Amino acid sequence: MTDPIRSVVLTGASGGLGRALAAELAAPGRHMLLMGRGAGRLAEAAEAARALGAEVQTAAVALTETAALTRCLQAFDAAHPVDLLIANAGVKTGNRGGIEPAAQAERVIAVNLTATIHAVQALLPAMGARRRGRIAIVGSLAAIAPHGDLLSYSATKAGLQAYATALRRSLAGSGVRVTTVIPGFMDTPMTDRQKGPAPMLMPPERAARIVARGLDRGRATIAFPLPLIIGAWLGERLPAPLADRIMARYRAEILPDSDEAAGG
């Protein structure tokens, strides 16, 4: 990576892309804090990273509990100054006909958007004081092409993309860099619950390699697979009736999720 990465914080590490990233980034002598819900799967992710030589701590903290989240992150940073924060945790819930229960929408916003902002703000002052560090925020294709069956999810991912871009501009010259990650469809439990088309589906391990390579090269944006990203971007620039007809082909039934906030 552009700066030595000795200490990593990864949210949403118990499954999907997060678990794959934990394995991809694990290295001898590297300290890692893996955060997620579901103690069993989080422990498995930690053991896999330890087998690759990393020094791993885990924290099954509810990201929506801001005080606990902040204490956990700042305690780890005090012991192992964080070089890389990957904010990957997220939940995906569906809707039909524009109807979405208020409690469901509030949960998606709290986990995907608000908790990510709180995680960044918990670590940013120390990173800024050290004048080094990288923050990677994991968004979604839904930020580029909002999905009619994913109202709040699309809104939160668009919000994350805007937040990451604004943060990058705010931190210009500070030594702290910001990367936006925009993955397409990955073969994960989250995608399994989306019963509809999933073009250019890729294993999370391949996605993790792409993310790690992009971070190593200091990319401000890591978006993949490129044909899908370009197609979505161009599609949203068509006249609205035509863009809506194209997106109608991707309508899906979104099955209920568990209470686990695991990205990917």
Short descriptors:
single chain, 264 residues, alpha/beta, Rossmann fold, seven-stranded parallel β-sheet, 9 helices, disordered C terminus
User: How many domains?
Assistant: 1
State the end-to-end distance.
23 Å
CATH homology group: NAD(P)-binding Rossmann-like Domain
Oligomer: single chain
- Spatial strand order of the main sheet: 3-2-1-4-5-6-8
Instruction: Tell me what portion of residues adopts beta-strand conformation.
Output: 15-25%
Low-confidence stretches: 259-264
How big is the Rg? 18 Å
What this model shows, in words?
- The chain has 264 residues and is α/β, with parallel strands linked by helices.
- The protein has one domain (7-254): 3-Layer(aba) Sandwich (Rossmann fold).
- The chain contains 9 helices and 9 strands.
- The chain has a 7-stranded parallel sheet with strand order 3-2-1-4-5-6-8, with helices on both faces. A two-stranded antiparallel sheet has the order 7-9.
- Strand 5, helix 5 (151-170) and strand 6 (176-183) form a beta-alpha-beta unit.
- The longest helix is centred in the middle third of the chain and has 29 residues, at 102-130.
